[in-house]
Task: structure prediction
Amino acid sequence: MSETTPADRLPIELRTEALEQLLTERGLVDPSVMDKFIQTYETSVGPMNGAKVIAKAWTDPDYRERLLADGTAAIAELGFKGPQGEHIVVVENTPQRHNVIVCTLCSCYPWPVLGLPPSWYKDPAYRARVVREPRVVLAEMGLELPADTEIVVRDSSSEVRWLVLPEQPAGTEDLSEQELAGLVTRDAMVGVAKVKAP
Amino acid sequence: MNRIADLGGTEGWGRVKTPTADEPVFAQEWEGRAFALALLSMGRVSGRNLDAFRHALERLGRPEYFDTYYGRWLHAAELMLVESAILAPGAVEARARKLRGEDVDEPPVPEPNKPDYAPTAAGSLRTVEDAPRFAVGERVRAKDLEPKGHTRLPHYLRGHCGTIEMIQPAALLPDTHAHFLGENAQHVYTVRFDSRELWGADAQPFALSSELYESYLEPVS
Result:
């Protein structure tokens, strides 16, 4: 193994372990706090939260109105708040208008309702291209929109976070709120997919 | 600002990744550790400054920036810790080599030299006494700024005209906060642009909105 050439990059796993050790032995980081952060985002903060918000909006017209008027407050009614959720704006997708969310500068994403962003959202191709040719990008992701649907791309460049209220699929009017929540996907709440009927 | 992170409209990236429904939050164990370390490290440098963390991300070299997503986070956390002398330069590298059995000397722990700075409140939302300069429906231009430091004004919007769509809650200004130089709270606007204004007459027709701080904008006369 060559020791000092620039090509000799340390494996990132090893670098991570080294940093954790350095900070832990000086009491600057508590590994049990790290475990808690990891577990929180692996198990309790994710798109299942957003799905509950959307299902409630589909079944409760008053809630829908509150959600579109003040997303942060309506989302907090269901107990969802925290980092990356200081101010959440909810926009409705309709057959006439389709919103799609991106962060071209980094990876801003509404954590309390969607959790941590998926790899495609953080990928340079999505960040670079969806603000320039959204219709092509959405088609590559499997969403073909009718030519007369207006596309609105939302580039999250401040601490405002966006959540898409997708269209409720036809034929699901009789489903319960809980059943509807099971249909709502992360991708639909970012605007790169539609919710499908079961 | 180094353009490495300012990707909007740049070309040559190929196809987008196809979403998969069952992607794990952290594909490998170290990614979760790096995520947590970055969040906690931020809190060790003068007030959990997320803008300073973004600025650190933007100053990484290409290999570090594109060293996977959480690799990027780890490198930026390390940069912030070294800059505030919580870690010595080369400390992580030396410890990592030691971990894999190499015989290396580790640098001594330095005397921390953190920015003398504290946010006035948690989070980024602030109160601004002055009324917003611009009204919903008003035409504005994103200034053609080229700041040396951090900014949240994407390149592809600079010099282009749009319309104020919404007035968002006022917030501290990342351009100064990222450098520990003050909060300078400002009004924030969702500004809507037409794709042909941004990309020329041949662009696919669509609308694009972005949240821009008041000092990024000027009236269109």
